[in-house]
Amino acid sequence: MVGEESYKIIQDYIKAYNAFDVEGMVSLLNKDIKFRNISNGEVNTETQGIQKFRELAEESIKIFSSRRQTIIDCLYVEDRVEVEIDYEGIVAIDLPNGLKVGDKIQLQGKSIFKIEQGKLSLIEDHS
């Protein structure tokens, strides 16, 4: 499924993400959801299945006091949707990488989504 319906599912996912709405995010997922975070070409986080995704999402909401993904562009490639994203977040806790409470993160990246039977089955975040 690619097109307007796919874009709506992705928009709903990002809206839930921005609102720290884990239940809203999870409601859009296939039970076997695969999630990967790729930074500088290397996978630094990977999960499979709704429960593992939920655990990761619940942990990540503790890290930011605010966060916002904004869709810049969208490209349909075969059975996937590639979305260019602007990301901004405010850190809520001191992190091992040196970021401190109140630090602002801004970056651009892309997310790749695959949708099967009306649910997200793959989310890959690239930065």
From TrEMBL:
All copies of domain SnoaL-like, residue ranges: 10-120
Gene3D superfamilies assigned to the protein according to its UniProt record, in alphabetical order: 3.10.450.50
Signal peptide bounds: none
SUPFAM superfamilies associated with the record: NTF2-like
InterPro entries noted in UniProt: NTF2-like_dom_sf, SnoaL-like
Protein name: SnoaL-like domain-containing protein
Organism listed in the record: Paenibacillus segetis
